[in-house]
Design brief:
Keywords: Cell membrane, Glycosyltransferase, Membrane, Transferase, Transmembrane, Transmembrane helix
Number of domains: 2
Strand order of the largest sheet: 1-2
Largest sheet: 2 strands, antiparallel
Radius of gyration: 21 Å
Low-confidence stretches: none
Oligomer: single chain
EC number: 2.4.1.-
Function: Protein O-mannosyltransferase that catalyzes the transfer of a single mannose residue from a polyprenol phospho-mannosyl lipidic donor to the hydroxyl group of selected serine and threonine residues in acceptor proteins.
Order of helices and strands: HHHHHHHHHHHEEHHHHH
Family: Belongs to the glycosyltransferase 39 family.
Domain Protein O-mannosyl-transferase C-terminal four TM: 232-303
Number of helices: 16
Number of strands: 2
Protein backbone atom coordinates (compact mmCIF):
# COMPACT_ATOMS: atom_id res chain seq x y z
CA UNK A 1 0.00 0.00 0.00
CA UNK A 2 1.44 3.38 -1.02
CA UNK A 3 0.23 5.81 1.64
CA UNK A 4 2.38 8.83 0.75
CA UNK A 5 2.76 9.03 -3.02
CA UNK A 6 3.80 12.71 -3.19
CA UNK A 7 7.54 12.27 -2.49
CA UNK A 8 7.70 9.50 -5.07
CA UNK A 9 5.74 11.62 -7.55
CA UNK A 10 8.19 14.51 -7.09
CA UNK A 11 11.12 12.16 -7.64
CA UNK A 12 9.52 10.85 -10.83
CA UNK A 13 9.00 14.42 -12.03
CA UNK A 14 12.66 15.27 -11.41
CA UNK A 15 13.91 12.13 -13.18
CA UNK A 16 11.64 12.69 -16.18
CA UNK A 17 12.63 16.35 -16.42
CA UNK A 18 16.34 15.49 -16.35
CA UNK A 19 15.79 12.94 -19.12
CA UNK A 20 13.87 15.37 -21.31
CA UNK A 21 16.26 18.31 -20.78
CA UNK A 22 19.44 16.46 -21.76
CA UNK A 23 20.69 17.87 -25.10
CA UNK A 24 17.36 19.66 -25.59
CA UNK A 25 18.89 22.25 -27.94
CA UNK A 26 19.84 19.56 -30.47
CA UNK A 27 18.98 19.98 -33.25
CA UNK A 28 19.30 23.74 -33.51
CA UNK A 29 16.78 24.03 -36.37
CA UNK A 30 12.99 23.76 -36.43
CA UNK A 31 11.79 20.17 -36.15
CA UNK A 32 8.55 19.14 -37.91
CA UNK A 33 5.62 21.38 -36.81
CA UNK A 34 7.86 23.73 -34.87
CA UNK A 35 7.90 25.61 -38.16
CA UNK A 36 4.27 26.58 -37.42
CA UNK A 37 4.17 26.96 -33.67
CA UNK A 38 7.39 28.83 -32.89
CA UNK A 39 6.53 31.67 -35.32
CA UNK A 40 3.02 31.73 -33.81
CA UNK A 41 4.60 32.01 -30.35
CA UNK A 42 6.75 34.91 -31.58
CA UNK A 43 3.58 36.62 -32.77
CA UNK A 44 2.04 36.16 -29.32
CA UNK A 45 5.08 37.65 -27.65
CA UNK A 46 4.84 40.73 -29.89
CA UNK A 47 1.00 40.69 -29.87
CA UNK A 48 1.12 41.71 -33.51
CA UNK A 49 -2.01 39.88 -34.63
CA UNK A 50 -3.65 36.51 -35.33
CA UNK A 51 -1.45 33.60 -36.45
CA UNK A 52 -2.02 29.86 -36.78
CA UNK A 53 -5.68 30.48 -36.00
CA UNK A 54 -6.76 26.87 -36.60
CA UNK A 55 -5.66 26.06 -33.03
CA UNK A 56 -6.46 27.73 -29.68
CA UNK A 57 -3.81 29.87 -27.97
CA UNK A 58 -2.76 28.14 -24.76
CA UNK A 59 -0.14 25.76 -26.15
CA UNK A 60 1.42 28.53 -28.22
CA UNK A 61 1.29 30.86 -25.20
CA UNK A 62 3.24 28.30 -23.17
CA UNK A 63 5.87 28.03 -25.92
CA UNK A 64 6.06 31.84 -25.89
CA UNK A 65 6.50 31.82 -22.10
CA UNK A 66 9.51 29.54 -22.43
CA UNK A 67 10.96 31.86 -25.04
CA UNK A 68 10.45 34.86 -22.76
CA UNK A 69 12.29 33.05 -19.96
CA UNK A 70 15.16 31.51 -21.94
CA UNK A 71 15.27 33.44 -25.18
CA UNK A 72 14.31 32.75 -28.78
CA UNK A 73 16.55 29.70 -28.94
CA UNK A 74 15.96 25.97 -29.41
CA UNK A 75 16.09 25.54 -25.63
CA UNK A 76 13.59 28.36 -25.16
CA UNK A 77 11.24 26.91 -27.78
CA UNK A 78 11.16 23.47 -26.18
CA UNK A 79 11.66 23.87 -22.44
CA UNK A 80 7.98 24.16 -21.56
CA UNK A 81 7.28 20.96 -23.49
CA UNK A 82 9.67 19.13 -21.15
CA UNK A 83 7.63 20.29 -18.16
CA UNK A 84 4.45 19.11 -19.87
CA UNK A 85 6.02 15.70 -20.47
CA UNK A 86 7.10 15.39 -16.84
CA UNK A 87 3.62 16.36 -15.64
CA UNK A 88 2.13 13.69 -17.92
CA UNK A 89 4.41 11.01 -16.46
CA UNK A 90 3.42 11.97 -12.91
CA UNK A 91 -0.28 12.10 -13.87
CA UNK A 92 -0.17 8.53 -15.22
CA UNK A 93 1.57 7.45 -12.01
CA UNK A 94 -1.08 9.24 -9.93
CA UNK A 95 -3.99 7.77 -11.91
CA UNK A 96 -2.63 4.25 -11.52
CA UNK A 97 -2.04 4.77 -7.82
CA UNK A 98 -5.57 6.07 -7.32
CA UNK A 99 -6.89 2.99 -9.14
CA UNK A 100 -4.71 0.42 -7.35
CA UNK A 101 -3.40 2.14 -4.18
CA UNK A 102 -0.18 0.19 -4.71
CA UNK A 103 3.37 1.31 -5.37
CA UNK A 104 4.53 -1.39 -7.77
CA UNK A 105 1.93 -1.09 -10.56
CA UNK A 106 2.03 2.69 -10.24
CA UNK A 107 5.79 2.75 -10.79
CA UNK A 108 5.45 0.27 -13.65
CA UNK A 109 2.91 2.58 -15.31
CA UNK A 110 5.27 5.55 -14.93
CA UNK A 111 8.19 3.55 -16.30
CA UNK A 112 6.20 2.37 -19.32
CA UNK A 113 5.10 5.97 -19.94
CA UNK A 114 8.72 7.10 -20.09
CA UNK A 115 9.84 4.09 -22.14
CA UNK A 116 6.99 4.29 -24.68
CA UNK A 117 9.06 6.63 -26.95
CA UNK A 118 6.21 8.94 -27.91
CA UNK A 119 6.25 10.98 -24.69
CA UNK A 120 10.02 11.37 -24.90
CA UNK A 121 9.87 12.70 -28.47
CA UNK A 122 6.89 14.99 -27.86
CA UNK A 123 8.41 16.35 -24.63
CA UNK A 124 11.39 17.61 -26.62
CA UNK A 125 9.62 19.48 -29.41
CA UNK A 126 7.64 22.73 -29.50
CA UNK A 127 4.26 21.29 -30.50
CA UNK A 128 0.82 21.63 -28.94
CA UNK A 129 0.08 17.95 -28.32
CA UNK A 130 2.33 17.64 -25.26
CA UNK A 131 0.63 20.53 -23.48
CA UNK A 132 -2.81 19.16 -24.30
CA UNK A 133 -1.92 15.75 -22.88
CA UNK A 134 -0.38 17.23 -19.73
CA UNK A 135 -3.64 19.02 -18.87
CA UNK A 136 -5.74 16.07 -20.02
CA UNK A 137 -3.86 13.40 -18.05
CA UNK A 138 -3.87 15.68 -14.99
CA UNK A 139 -7.65 16.07 -15.36
CA UNK A 140 -8.04 12.29 -15.51
CA UNK A 141 -5.95 11.90 -12.34
CA UNK A 142 -8.03 14.60 -10.62
CA UNK A 143 -11.25 12.82 -11.63
CA UNK A 144 -9.90 9.57 -10.21
CA UNK A 145 -9.14 11.42 -6.98
CA UNK A 146 -12.66 12.86 -6.95
CA UNK A 147 -14.08 9.38 -7.51
CA UNK A 148 -12.24 8.14 -4.46
CA UNK A 149 -12.51 11.11 -2.09
CA UNK A 150 -15.23 13.40 -3.43
CA UNK A 151 -15.05 17.14 -2.86
CA UNK A 152 -16.16 20.04 -5.02
CA UNK A 153 -12.71 21.55 -5.31
CA UNK A 154 -11.33 18.40 -6.92
CA UNK A 155 -14.21 18.24 -9.38
CA UNK A 156 -13.83 21.93 -10.25
CA UNK A 157 -10.07 21.47 -10.68
CA UNK A 158 -10.72 18.58 -13.08
CA UNK A 159 -13.12 20.77 -15.07
CA UNK A 160 -10.57 23.59 -15.26
CA UNK A 161 -7.87 21.19 -16.44
CA UNK A 162 -10.18 19.80 -19.13
CA UNK A 163 -10.93 23.32 -20.33
CA UNK A 164 -7.23 24.14 -20.48
CA UNK A 165 -6.58 20.93 -22.43
CA UNK A 166 -9.14 22.04 -25.00
CA UNK A 167 -7.42 25.43 -24.96
CA UNK A 168 -4.33 23.69 -26.33
CA UNK A 169 -6.03 21.54 -28.99
CA UNK A 170 -9.65 20.79 -29.74
CA UNK A 171 -8.84 17.08 -29.66
CA UNK A 172 -9.40 17.26 -25.89
CA UNK A 173 -13.03 18.41 -26.27
CA UNK A 174 -14.58 14.89 -26.42
CA UNK A 175 -13.00 14.11 -23.04
CA UNK A 176 -15.36 16.59 -21.39
CA UNK A 177 -18.22 14.40 -22.63
CA UNK A 178 -16.30 11.29 -21.52
CA UNK A 179 -15.94 12.81 -18.04
CA UNK A 180 -19.68 13.47 -17.84
CA UNK A 181 -20.52 9.95 -19.01
CA UNK A 182 -18.04 8.40 -16.57
CA UNK A 183 -19.54 10.40 -13.70
CA UNK A 184 -23.06 9.19 -14.53
CA UNK A 185 -22.03 5.55 -14.98
CA UNK A 186 -19.96 5.30 -11.82
CA UNK A 187 -22.50 7.24 -9.74
CA UNK A 188 -25.40 5.04 -10.88
CA UNK A 189 -23.42 1.86 -10.28
CA UNK A 190 -22.65 2.98 -6.72
CA UNK A 191 -24.18 6.19 -5.30
CA UNK A 192 -21.39 6.30 -2.71
CA UNK A 193 -18.93 7.24 -5.43
CA UNK A 194 -18.17 10.94 -5.93
CA UNK A 195 -19.38 11.66 -2.36
CA UNK A 196 -21.07 15.02 -1.91
CA UNK A 197 -21.62 15.61 -5.65
CA UNK A 198 -25.22 15.35 -6.91
CA UNK A 199 -25.39 14.31 -10.56
CA UNK A 200 -26.98 17.23 -12.37
CA UNK A 201 -25.22 19.92 -10.39
CA UNK A 202 -21.87 18.19 -10.95
CA UNK A 203 -22.51 17.97 -14.70
CA UNK A 204 -23.53 21.63 -14.86
CA UNK A 205 -20.35 22.65 -13.04
CA UNK A 206 -18.26 20.47 -15.36
CA UNK A 207 -19.71 22.08 -18.47
CA UNK A 208 -19.68 25.69 -17.27
CA UNK A 209 -16.25 25.66 -15.61
CA UNK A 210 -14.50 23.84 -18.49
CA UNK A 211 -16.05 26.26 -20.99
CA UNK A 212 -14.99 29.30 -18.97
CA UNK A 213 -11.45 27.93 -18.62
CA UNK A 214 -11.32 27.34 -22.38
CA UNK A 215 -12.47 30.85 -23.28
CA UNK A 216 -10.02 32.35 -20.77
CA UNK A 217 -7.13 30.98 -22.85
CA UNK A 218 -8.00 33.49 -25.58
CA UNK A 219 -7.15 36.46 -23.33
CA UNK A 220 -3.93 37.43 -25.19
CA UNK A 221 -5.88 37.81 -28.45
CA UNK A 222 -7.79 40.76 -26.96
CA UNK A 223 -4.54 42.74 -26.95
CA UNK A 224 -3.41 42.20 -30.55
CA UNK A 225 -2.21 45.32 -32.32
CA UNK A 226 -4.01 44.19 -35.49
CA UNK A 227 -7.46 42.55 -35.49
CA UNK A 228 -7.78 42.24 -31.72
CA UNK A 229 -10.40 39.79 -30.52
CA UNK A 230 -13.57 41.14 -28.92
CA UNK A 231 -16.29 39.55 -26.84
CA UNK A 232 -18.64 39.89 -29.79
CA UNK A 233 -16.16 38.05 -32.01
CA UNK A 234 -15.25 35.32 -29.54
CA UNK A 235 -17.99 32.87 -30.58
CA UNK A 236 -17.82 33.59 -34.35
CA UNK A 237 -14.05 33.09 -34.12
CA UNK A 238 -14.68 29.49 -33.04
CA UNK A 239 -16.44 28.88 -36.37
CA UNK A 240 -13.45 30.37 -38.20
CA UNK A 241 -11.24 27.88 -36.36
CA UNK A 242 -13.60 25.04 -37.24
CA UNK A 243 -13.38 25.90 -40.94
CA UNK A 244 -9.59 25.78 -40.74
CA UNK A 245 -9.69 22.50 -38.82
CA UNK A 246 -11.95 20.78 -41.33
CA UNK A 247 -10.42 22.02 -44.57
CA UNK A 248 -9.36 19.37 -47.08
CA UNK A 249 -5.59 19.06 -47.14
CA UNK A 250 -3.39 17.71 -49.95
CA UNK A 251 -1.98 14.20 -49.66
CA UNK A 252 1.12 13.78 -47.49
CA UNK A 253 3.88 11.16 -47.57
CA UNK A 254 3.34 10.31 -43.90
CA UNK A 255 -0.45 10.29 -43.80
CA UNK A 256 -2.11 7.20 -42.32
CA UNK A 257 -5.53 5.90 -41.26
CA UNK A 258 -6.49 5.83 -37.59
CA UNK A 259 -6.84 2.05 -37.47
CA UNK A 260 -3.19 1.61 -38.52
CA UNK A 261 -1.79 3.55 -35.54
CA UNK A 262 -2.16 0.83 -32.87
CA UNK A 263 -0.48 -1.61 -35.26
CA UNK A 264 2.51 0.73 -35.67
CA UNK A 265 2.31 0.64 -39.46
CA UNK A 266 3.30 4.21 -40.39
CA UNK A 267 5.42 6.20 -37.91
CA UNK A 268 6.78 9.65 -38.84
CA UNK A 269 10.29 10.93 -39.34
CA UNK A 270 10.19 14.35 -37.68
CA UNK A 271 13.77 14.93 -38.83
CA UNK A 272 16.27 13.14 -41.04
CA UNK A 273 18.97 15.33 -42.50
CA UNK A 274 22.48 16.65 -41.89
CA UNK A 275 22.26 19.30 -39.19
CA UNK A 276 24.70 20.70 -36.62
CA UNK A 277 27.59 19.10 -38.45
CA UNK A 278 26.35 15.52 -38.78
CA UNK A 279 23.51 13.29 -39.93
CA UNK A 280 20.66 13.20 -37.40
CA UNK A 281 17.17 11.76 -37.18
CA UNK A 282 14.07 11.92 -34.98
CA UNK A 283 11.54 9.15 -35.51
CA UNK A 284 8.15 9.43 -33.83
CA UNK A 285 7.38 5.79 -33.18
CA UNK A 286 5.99 3.89 -30.23
CA UNK A 287 8.01 1.28 -28.37
CA UNK A 288 6.94 -1.88 -30.23
CA UNK A 289 6.78 -3.98 -27.06
CA UNK A 290 4.56 -1.46 -25.27
CA UNK A 291 2.42 -0.60 -28.28
CA UNK A 292 1.70 -4.20 -29.26
CA UNK A 293 1.73 -5.60 -25.72
CA UNK A 294 -0.62 -2.82 -24.69
CA UNK A 295 -3.23 -4.07 -27.15
CA UNK A 296 -3.16 -7.46 -25.42
CA UNK A 297 -3.56 -5.71 -22.06
CA UNK A 298 -6.54 -3.65 -23.29
CA UNK A 299 -8.23 -6.80 -24.61
CA UNK A 300 -7.57 -8.54 -21.28
CA UNK A 301 -9.10 -5.59 -19.41
CA UNK A 302 -12.24 -5.75 -21.53
CA UNK A 303 -12.50 -9.51 -21.00
CA UNK A 304 -11.96 -9.10 -17.27
CA UNK A 305 -14.66 -6.43 -17.09
CA UNK A 306 -17.17 -8.63 -18.95
CA UNK A 307 -16.44 -11.50 -16.58
CA UNK A 308 -16.50 -9.72 -13.23
CA UNK A 309 -17.67 -6.15 -13.88
CA UNK A 310 -14.55 -4.57 -12.41
CA UNK A 311 -14.87 -0.75 -12.66
CA UNK A 312 -11.11 -0.22 -12.76
CA UNK A 313 -10.69 -2.64 -15.66
CA UNK A 314 -13.49 -0.86 -17.52
CA UNK A 315 -11.88 2.54 -16.87
CA UNK A 316 -8.44 1.38 -17.99
CA UNK A 317 -9.79 -0.24 -21.16
CA UNK A 318 -12.03 2.69 -22.05
CA UNK A 319 -9.24 5.21 -21.49
CA UNK A 320 -7.40 3.79 -24.51
CA UNK A 321 -10.44 2.68 -26.52
CA UNK A 322 -12.24 6.00 -26.25
CA UNK A 323 -9.14 7.99 -27.13
CA UNK A 324 -8.78 6.03 -30.37
CA UNK A 325 -12.52 5.93 -31.16
CA UNK A 326 -12.50 9.73 -31.41
CA UNK A 327 -10.57 9.46 -34.66
CA UNK A 328 -13.14 7.14 -36.22
CA UNK A 329 -15.65 10.02 -36.27
CA UNK A 330 -13.58 13.22 -36.19
CA UNK A 331 -13.82 15.25 -39.44
CA UNK A 332 -10.15 15.32 -40.48
CA UNK A 333 -9.14 14.90 -44.13
CA UNK A 334 -5.71 13.49 -43.22
CA UNK A 335 -4.45 11.40 -40.33
CA UNK A 336 -0.94 11.11 -38.90
CA UNK A 337 0.66 8.83 -36.35
CA UNK A 338 1.25 11.69 -33.91
CA UNK A 339 -2.53 11.90 -33.45
CA UNK A 340 -2.15 8.58 -31.62
CA UNK A 341 0.07 10.22 -28.99
CA UNK A 342 -2.52 10.32 -26.16
CA UNK A 343 -3.62 6.74 -26.82
CA UNK A 344 -0.02 5.54 -26.86
CA UNK A 345 0.56 7.03 -23.42
CA UNK A 346 -2.74 5.75 -22.00
CA UNK A 347 -1.65 2.18 -22.82
CA UNK A 348 0.59 2.32 -19.75
CA UNK A 349 -2.43 2.09 -17.42
CA UNK A 350 -4.04 -1.15 -18.70
CA UNK A 351 -0.57 -2.63 -19.15
CA UNK A 352 0.39 -1.90 -15.54
CA UNK A 353 -2.90 -3.33 -14.26
CA UNK A 354 -2.66 -6.53 -16.27
CA UNK A 355 1.04 -7.08 -15.60
CA UNK A 356 0.25 -6.76 -11.91
CA UNK A 357 -2.57 -9.28 -12.31
CA UNK A 358 -0.40 -11.72 -14.27
CA UNK A 359 2.21 -11.66 -11.49
CA UNK A 360 0.10 -14.25 -9.69
CA UNK A 361 1.20 -16.72 -12.37
CA UNK A 362 4.53 -15.26 -13.51
CA UNK A 363 6.10 -13.61 -10.49
CA UNK A 364 8.40 -11.07 -12.14
CA UNK A 365 6.64 -10.56 -15.46
CA UNK A 366 6.25 -6.82 -14.85
CA UNK A 367 9.97 -6.32 -14.20
CA UNK A 368 10.91 -8.46 -17.20
CA UNK A 369 8.55 -6.44 -19.39
CA UNK A 370 10.01 -3.12 -18.19
CA UNK A 371 13.54 -4.44 -18.72
CA UNK A 372 12.72 -5.50 -22.29
CA UNK A 373 11.10 -2.11 -22.95
CA UNK A 374 14.23 -0.40 -21.61
CA UNK A 375 16.43 -2.48 -23.94
CA UNK A 376 14.36 -1.36 -26.91
CA UNK A 377 14.53 2.25 -25.71
CA UNK A 378 18.32 2.09 -25.64
CA UNK A 379 18.32 0.52 -29.11
CA UNK A 380 16.09 3.22 -30.61
CA UNK A 381 17.54 6.15 -28.63
CA UNK A 382 19.78 7.50 -31.43
CA UNK A 383 16.73 8.15 -33.64
CA UNK A 384 14.60 9.42 -30.76
CA UNK A 385 17.12 11.97 -29.51
CA UNK A 386 18.71 13.33 -32.73
CA UNK A 387 22.05 11.76 -31.82
CA UNK A 388 24.84 11.76 -34.43
CA UNK A 389 24.37 8.95 -36.97
CA UNK A 390 27.13 7.28 -39.02
CA UNK A 391 25.79 8.24 -42.46
CA UNK A 392 22.70 9.01 -44.53
CA UNK A 393 21.75 5.34 -44.78
CA UNK A 394 21.82 4.71 -41.03
CA UNK A 395 18.01 4.73 -40.84
CA UNK A 396 18.08 1.09 -41.97
CA UNK A 397 19.19 0.04 -38.47
CA UNK A 398 15.83 1.07 -37.02
CA UNK A 399 13.31 0.72 -39.84
CA UNK A 400 12.21 -2.89 -39.37
CA UNK A 401 9.51 -2.64 -42.03
CA UNK A 402 9.31 -0.80 -45.33
CA UNK A 403 6.44 1.35 -44.04
CA UNK A 404 8.74 2.72 -41.32
CA UNK A 405 11.06 4.39 -43.86
Amino acid sequence: MLRRPLPLALLLFALAEALFLFRLSVPSIFVFDEVHYVPAARTLIALTGPANIEHPLLGKSLIAFGMLLFGDTPFGWRVMSTLAGSVTCVAIFATTWLVTCRRRPSLVAAALTLLGFTLYVQARIAMLDGFMLAFLSSAIAMMAWTLRRGGWWRWIAAAVLLGLAVGCKWLAAPYVAFAAAAFILFKRADPRRFPGLPVWLALAVLGIVSLLAYFATFAPAFFYQVEPLTLARLIPFQFDMFERQTQVLPAHAYQSNWWTWPLLIRPIWYLYEPVDGTQRGILLIGNPLIMWGGLVAVAACWIGWVRNGSPRLFAAAWLWTGSLAIWAVIPKSLGFYYYYFPSSVFLAVPLALMLDHWRSRWRHIDLAFVAAALALAIYFLPVLSAAPLPDGGAFRYWTWFSTWV
